[in-house]
Amino acid sequence: MDLDPSSALVLFSGGQDSTTCLAWALSRYQRVETIGFSYGQRHAVEMEVREPVRRAIAGLSVVWANRLGPDRVVSLDVLGSISKSALTADLPMETRPDGLPVTFVPGRNLVFLTFAAIVAYQRGLKHVVAGVCETDFSGYPDCRDDTVKALQVAINLGMEARLVLETPLMWIDKADTWRLAESMGGHALVDLIVEETHTCYLGDRARRHDWGVGCGACDACRLRANGWSRYRA
Amino acid sequence: MDLDPSSALVLFSGGQDSTTCLAWALSRYQRVETIGFSYGQRHAVEMEVREPVRRAIAGLSVVWANRLGPDRVVSLDVLGSISKSALTADLPMETRPDGLPVTFVPGRNLVFLTFAAIVAYQRGLKHVVAGVCETDFSGYPDCRDDTVKALQVAINLGMEARLVLETPLMWIDKADTWRLAESMGGHALVDLIVEETHTCYLGDRARRHDWGVGCGACDACRLRANGWSRYRA
Question: ipTM score here?
Answer without folding.
Answer: 0.91
